[in-house]
Specification:
With 91 residues, the protein is mainly α. The protein has a domain of 36 residues. 45% of the residues lie in helices and 0% in strands. The chain has five helices and no strands. The longest helix has 11 residues. The protein is elongated, with a radius of gyration of 23 Å. The relative contact order is 0.10.
Length: 91
């Protein structure tokens, strides 16, 4: 079980020694998410867990939201059609 946090001085010394976040995680048992959140700036990398967002709504109206969506083969994208065809051929 990993520790949620650890001694700052110890972690900084390990970073100065050139250890990666994973090596520090293994050596002292600090969680990767804690190291990523608090020390990724020292590695000049982007954070591991970066979330995006969606600008447009999923539904245009409440009625559309409340009704179950019915998909037809014609409404599928080419890649979805290929997946459907491959799965249908498994029968």
């Amino acid at each position: 079980m990993s520790k949620p946090n650890a001694d700052y001085e110890l972690i900084f010394n390990l970073i100065k020694e050139g250890l990666t976040m994973n090596q520090i995680h293994v050596r002292i048992g600090v969680s990767m998410s804690y190291l990523d959140k608090n020390y990724s700036a020292y590695y000049k990398t982007e954070r591991l867990n970066k979330l995006g967002h969606k600008d447009e709504p999923y539904y245009k109206t409440e009625d559309e939201m409340l009704k179950d969506k019915v998909y037809t083969y014609e409404s599928l994208s080419p890649s979805e059609k290929q997946i459907y065809d491959e799965m249908a051929g498994d029968d």
